[in-house]
Design goal:
Layout: E1 10-13, E2 38-41, H1 60-63, E3 66-68, H2 69-72, E4 77-80, E5 83-91, H3 98-107, E6 126-128, E7 135-137, H4 138-145, E8 153-156, E9 159-167, E10 173-174, E11 181-182, E12 188-191, E13 197-199, H5 200-203, E14 208-209, E15 219-222, E16 249-252, E17 257-260, H6 261-266, E18 282-286, H7 291-311, E19 329-330, E20 333-334, E21 336-339, H8 343-346, E22 367-371, E23 376-379, H9 380-383, E24 388-390, E25 397-402, E26 410-411, E27 418-419, E28 422-426, E29 429-432, H10 433-436, E30 441-444, E31 451-455, H11 463-466, E32 468-469, E33 476-477, E34 479-483, E35 488-491, E36 500-503, E37 506-513, E38 526-527, E39 534-535, E40 541-544, E41 549-552, H12 553-559, E42 584-589, E43 593-594, E44 601-602, E45 605-610, E46 617-618, H13 620-624, H14 631-639
Parallel strand pairs: 18-30
Antiparallel strand pairs: 1-2, 2-3, 4-5, 5-6, 6-7, 8-9, 9-12, 10-11, 12-13, 14-15, 15-16, 16-17, 19-20, 21-22, 22-23, 24-25, 25-28, 26-27, 28-29, 30-31, 31-34, 32-33, 34-35, 36-37, 37-40, 38-39, 40-41, 42-45, 43-44, 45-46
Length: 640
């Protein structure tokens, strides 16, 4: 199409996907997806598509030129609605009319609309008479002179109990469809019997549409959230805000993708983050491919924290544990540097990995420190870990300490899990060495923006009041990586979840699902194989695509007895005459049994077990009265 308002031919788009900031050159209104056909410059857009190809084009006027089809089809000469004997001409460019240029120089405006009394914009179309005594903006002309091809009263499927009346003039109201309450210049439908009122452009929205931000399936329009999805709170995937059960939405039942009606049509969706600038210590590889990769990454972070500490401090200001290793004794025995070739000599069997008493992770390095008699071992990098490091997520210095008694646990303020190895003490709080050494900035596939390491520095007693909900496991956490812009937070435990894992109940690999669309064509609910409860797919879970088997993150760890991954079990020779007359061993109880003292039923819990033939076990609640195992552990187990 050739139009006098533009120097190049125009191309009509029947399925135009609007972007933020797209405005019609004719009426000056925002262009909405699905609202109407749109023309664009042929030198900018490929014919027959809705994708803009304006990269590399120098002519900005062509790149931004968009025109509603209704505006493009306006007649060049019309009857003056304020003077039926007069005629008005359509002006596309005021710079071609000398008098209008004079008005701009003298009054800083080309004139005032005779109907709405608003100053005219020199960028948009308008109607004028030969003497310039009458000027009318395009919006006023269309709403006061155009005849509607529809009946004045009609029915709409969103409100089929009453008739709707077409209101031609602009009105201020809260639209039941898009929930916008402002002076939008648009015709509207108003119920003749109740308060129902919607924009005409909302009423004309298509029942289904294939949007750019979800190209797997067309999104279907629903006038309320379908009852099938009422069990869990649902969120708009574009703005991350909660969906009301009675609001209009576009959704995909196959991918469980939901979007506010207004968000879907406005084109304002989350950016991809491709243009974000990353710092040197930003990790962009999460989630890790498998559990071995997770362990290697944790080792990498601990080493990196040591390097940063030593590079920013002098040797005198940091107590390097390895400098005192020759004089340090462990229960009367010296720790020796052991060669990697001797690793198998200290393993119980080939399938049982040797665990570090510092970070409680498997030892795979060439050299490590250990006491073979006491089965006490440390990675070389754990033994050499500085006693003080700068905490990257907050101001201050964190002090490294170690649990001296291996069956005594501490609760990590960062992830909420328990541990008995090296912990970092900062501002009255204890952290796993793996939690506090995570990178300051992380990029995770679950979110388009970079995630910053942040912590709420409050007293533990007030921690729950200031905690954020983890988008991975739904727990309240204070130490997390997050995007403040989107209010998206991931706890230290979830951020290091592996992408692919194994489970003894399934011969196939299970995949980390952090967006329901990752499971193709799964319309029914996901059910946890361990607890038999439905899974809220707004949060992360593990899923087998072959068997349709799923687990909550927490249930996955419990069901394969790995929920205490930061605890090293196996301490022997624990003597407590008040509990038991035999020596005890610190173990993870993996079968249903009862505590010898309180008779409480125990399963997948840390216990002290008799080393003798009686096989008695004692729960954390009973142990805590005799030892220093943390009270939070007792409270947690009681609530299970």
């Amino acid at each position: 199409m050739v139009h006098p308002s533009h120097e190049h031919p125009l191309i009509l788009h029947k399925n135009y996907i609007a972007r933020d900031g797209d405005m019609c050159r004719g009426c000056g209104e925002q262009i909405l997806s699905c609202k109407s056909f749109v023309y664009s410059c042929s030198t900018i857009t490929r014919a027959g598509t809705s994708t803009r190809t304006d990269t590399g084009v120098d002519d900005k006027s062509c790149a931004s030129f968009l025109l509603h089809k209704n505006c493009a089809d306006l007649p060049s000469v019309v009857q003056n609605p304020t003077n039926l004997k007069g005629r008005l001409k359509l002006c596309f460019d005021h710079s071609r009319i000398v008098k209008l240029q004079f008005n701009m120089l003298l009054y800083q405006t080309i004139g005032i609309c005779d109907i709405c009394n608003i100053e005219m914009s020199e960028k948009h179309f308008f109607y004028y008479d030969n003497d310039f005594d009458s000027i009318i903006c395009l919006i006023c002309f269309m709403y006061h002179t155009q005849l509607s091809s529809e009946d004045h009263k009609s029915m709409h499927p969103s409100h089929d109990q009453h008739l709707l009346s077409l209101i031609r003039h602009p009105s201020s109201f809260r639209c039941y469809a898009c929930n916008v309450n402002d002076n939008i210049v648009d015709m509207s439908y108003r119920c003749t019997s109740c308060q129902f009122w919607i924009h005409k452009s909302c009423a004309d929205a298509p029942a289904s549409f294939k949007f750019e931000f979800h190209d797997k399936h067309p999104l279907v329009l629903s006038f309320s959230l379908p009852p099938l999805y009422h069990k869990f709170r649902q969120y708009c995937r574009l703005c991350n805000k909660t969906l009301s059960p009675v609001t209009w939405i576009y959704y995909c039942r196959y991918c469980r993708f939901f979007a506010h009606f207004h968000c879907a049509r406005s084109g304002r969706f989350l950016s991809s983050g491709e243009n974000e600038r990353y710092e040197d210590d930003l990790l962009q590889l999460l989630p890790a491919a498998d559990e071995l990769s997770v362990q290697l990454l944790r080792e990498k972070f601990i080493k990196a924290a040591s390097i940063r500490a030593y590079s920013s401090n002098t040797a005198d200001s940091i107590l390097n544990w390895v400098n005192d290793i020759k004089n340090m004794s462990h229960e009367g025995h010296h720790l020796q540097l052991i060669n990697g070739d001797e690793l198998k000599n200290h393993q119980i069997d080939e399938d049982t990995l040797l665990l570090c008493d510092g970070c409680t992770q498997p030892i795979r390095t060439d050299h490590f420190y250990g006491c073979a008699i006491c089965k006490y071992f440390l990675h070389k990098f754990c033994a050499e870990f500085p006693q003080e490091i700068q905490y990257p997520a907050a101001a201050g210095v964190a002090t490294a300490r170690m649990v001296n008694t291996r069956y005594k646990l501490f609760s990590c303020f960062g992830c909420g899990d328990f541990g008995n190895g090296i912990y970092l003490y900062w501002n009255g709080k204890k952290f796993h060495i793996g939690c506090l050494t995570l990178p300051k900035m992380i990029k995770h596939e679950a979110h388009p923006h970079k995630l910053k390491h942040m912590i709420m520095n409050v007293a533990p007693i007030f921690a729950s009041f200031f905690a954020s909900i983890c988008n991975g496991c739904e727990r309240k956490v204070n130490n997390r990586h997050g995007c403040m812009k989107c209010r998206y937070y991931i706890c230290n435990s979830c951020i290091m979840k592996a992408s692919v894992v194994q489970h003894p109940w399934d011969s196939h690999s299970l995949h980390l699902i952090y967006e329901p669309g990752m499971v193709v064509d799964h319309e029914h609910d996901f059910n946890c194989e361990h607890c038999s409860e439905d899974i809220d797919s707004n949060f992360w879970f593990y899923h087998c695509h072959t068997c349709d088997l799923s687990f909550h993150l927490r249930c996955f760890e419990i069901s394969r007895c790995s929920s205490y991954s930061n605890v090293k079990f196996g301490a022997t020779g624990v003597i407590n005459s008040e509990l038991h007359h035999h020596s005890l061993q610190f173990v993870l109880n993996k079968r249903s049994r009862r505590c010898e003292k309180c008779q409480r039923k125990l399963f997948v819990e840390p216990v002290l077990k008799c080393d003798g033939t009686c096989e008695s076990i004692f729960c954390a609640s009973c142990i805590s009265t005799e030892t220093d195992i943390m009270t939070p552990l007792v409270n947690l187990i009681k609530n299970l």
